[in-house]
Amino acid sequence: MSDSETDPEDSNVNYIPYSQRPEWSDIEPLKQNDGPYSVVRIAYTEKFSETFDYIRACMQKDEMSQRALELTKDACQLNPANYTVWCYRRKLLFHLNSDLNEELIFIGQLIREHQKNYQVWEHRRLIVEKSQIYNNELRFTSDLLRLDSKNYHPWQYRQWLLKTFNLWSTELDFVNNMIIDDIKNNSAWNQRYFVISQTTGFTDDIILKELDYVMNKIRSYPDNESSWNYLRGIARLRTINDDGKIEQFCQQMYDEYQQNECRFLYAYMIELIDLKCQEEGKKQSECNRLIELCEKLALHIDPIRKRYWENIRSRYTDKPLPNHTISASAS
Description:
This protein is an all-alpha fold. 61% of the residues lie in helices and 0% in strands. The protein has helices at 46-61, 66-78, 83-95, 100-113, 118-131, 137-147, 152-165, 171-181, 186-198, 204-220, 225-235, 245-256, 263-280, 284-301, 306-313.
């Protein structure tokens, strides 16, 4: 638990048990039924057990009251992963015509304390969907992404916001800034692909622009799998002749970075050569290049995947893989 988080068990030193509150005297708590042979009994605290005993009793009665709503607040703070309680709380909120702005404040606080909890994010989505209060939601997600830029939940929620409320106008700038901040952020690269596919689409002009964009990013930091994967994804969308733009780029990178061997470059070159040989037939020069790259990866740069590279190599030569390690200076 971070310093910014609070333990719901200690959040209110003046807490009064529900059994001692006059307004709850008409409710008979409903104990949890673990059956006659409970194997591993969970050591719930007294506050936790009592709160959920009263929740079960209210749900059994289908009570639609303000006190039940306040009860669900305590329960959600004690266990924000309880799907059933969140469903009951939403039912109460909508039935009582509660202020959903206040609910967004409440759930926002819980999300900051439990950023990777599915139920808190789903509750917020459903509240925004019901209320149509979305003006501050992109800012909310961007604040959380500053804390953890690769957290799946705010990215997923953000995509829903963009599609549901048509908020695309500044998203590509936002994503670009995220990539500038951390070029290895695979989530940001994925978001870039998502935004373009949902807006302009990957037209011929957009594809050429994106190729230039990702190639420049690769040049600035070659040893980054995320940008190579983005290049791979964009390249597969090509419907026009780009005069060997990608192959030329890879050759330039190979010539420039031979002394600082990049496994992502070599792996992608193997992929391109293999595809070309399948489409156009095997040429000896291309086969020799692929064999050389596979040997470098298998024996020196990426030995953990040795059998994978050996398998690709075996399609182009019957000669066994050399049993020596290639030196780092080998070309």
